Amino acid sequence: MADFTFHHGGVSVPSLDEAIDWYGRVLGFTVEKRFPIAAARAQAAMLRKGPLRFELFEVEGAAPLPDDRRHPPSDLKTHGNKHVAFRVADLEDFLIEMAAKQADIAFVVREAFGKGCFLRDCAGNLIEFVEEPDG
């Protein structure tokens, strides 16, 4: 079987500059590089935080994110990619930090199967954060 590792997640946003600011201010990502994608009529940026990468696209004439894609339970009712998820050491500490940064906390899960939350970025895209016990 071919060997591979995760490289990045990507989202389309209405304003590349606003999204770069949000991902930097709220989640601590920095710009690794910016580049045009002529075939898609897009401007893009690869963001990085340690080994994590996230790609943002501002595409000319793109449609806004539909409302049902902004809430995790309703988003699951549409086929396709749903979100990327990052691991956090302590969900409660993470939620306090995100509230202090006025992040849009879309949904919090505290169930027997696990704990986590979803944030909406500045364009409404969902990003999941999971507290997973070691071991």
From TrEMBL:
Record keyword Metal-binding present: yes
Keywords: Metal-binding
Domain of life: Bacteria
Entry's transmembrane regions: none
Limits of the VOC domain: 5-132
The UniProt record lists the keyword Metal-binding: yes
PROSITE patterns noted in UniProt: VOC
Pfam families, per the entry: Glyoxalase
Database matches in PANTHER family: BLR5325 PROTEIN, METHYLMALONYL-COA EPIMERASE
Name recorded for this polypeptide: VOC domain-containing protein
Source organism: Sphingomonas bisphenolicum
Lineage: Bacteria, Pseudomonadati, Pseudomonadota, Alphaproteobacteria, Sphingomonadales
